[in-house]
Specification:
Chain B: This is Disulfide bond formation protein B. The complex is a heterodimer. By secondary structure, chain A is mainly alpha-helical. Chain A has two helices and no strands. The model of chain A has no long low-confidence stretch (mean pLDDT 91). Helix content of chain B is 68%, strand content 2%. Classes of the chains: A mainly alpha, B mainly alpha.
Chain lengths: 50, 185
């Protein structure tokens, strides 16, 4: 589910970058990037299974 | 490099991102290889690479726009490096099939590293950031506009396909089918 939300948020940031206000696009891009890093760290701490 | 040339280069980079997202879809729909969680994260970070060029096309080249893409490329390189390392042990067949000898996450790492080098190289060209008085076509012209909408459409399509694959719960580590379609059947 988190990946669907991240794709949706990225698409929204693109639309704002293309049609909306620049500061809003920059701020939302930062939020999306932090959310991506948080998702990565969440999965990076999973126990590896072989 | 003039502002007009920089905008053309940014439009070309958007076509490159669209090509990567389309290639990922080709593996998903033609080879029936569903993306794992780390693969999805790499796709998202490829899409995030496009936000900087979109801003450059609309507002003109700016170092902060390139910096945004650099940050996304570094995050993508970290994610793809982790996936390479997960499958580096001898005897590990890797995740998914290989293309020209490399798995998709290895190609992703090469793609992100290439993006980092190209972004650093384009930042060296200072003239693009100076006002040169040339009247540029509104929002970059048709070539750039098609590139922007192509990337946005592919990212929006990924919203739908990821929802179909993962459903409303956590994505499977090794997905074999579309979660939402299983429930619908």
């Amino acid at each position: 589910m988190e990946f669907t939300v991240l794709f949706l948020a990225t698409a929204i940031v693109m639309l704002i970058a293309w049609r909306g206000r620049r500061p809003l696009a920059l701020g939302l891009f930062g939020v999306v990037l932090i959310a991506c890093i948080a998702t990565y760290l969440h999965h990076a701490t999973d126990t590896l299974s072989f | 490099m003039t502002q007009a040339r920089a905008i053309t280069l940014n439009a070309l980079s958007l076509y490159a991102v669209a090509l990567v997202l389309a290639a990922a879809y080709a593996a998903q729909f033609i080879l029936h290889e569903l993306p794992c969680p780390l693969c999805l994260l790499q796709r998202i970070l490829f899409a995030a690479l496009a936000v900087g060029p979109i801003l450059n096309v609309r507002f003109g080249p700016c170092p902060s726009h390139y910096a945004m893409s650099l940050l996304a490329a570094v995050a993508g390189a970290v994610a793809s490096t982790r996936q390479v390392l997960l499958h580096i042990l001898p005897g590990d067949a890797g995740y998914g099939s290989a293309l020209l000898g490399y798995h998709y996450y290895t190609w992703a790492l090469i793609g992100f590293m290439t993006a980092i080098v190209l972004l650093a190289a384009i930042l060296l060209l200072d003239r693009q950031f100076e006002e040169d008085g040339v009247v540029l076509p509104a929002t970059g012209g048709a070539f750039a506009q098609i590139a922007v909408w192509l990337v946005i459409a592919l990212t929006a399509a990924n919203v739908v396909t990821t929802l179909l694959e993962c459903g409303f719960g956590a994505c499977a580590d090794n997905p074999v089918g579309y979660e939402l379609l299983k429930h619908a059947a």
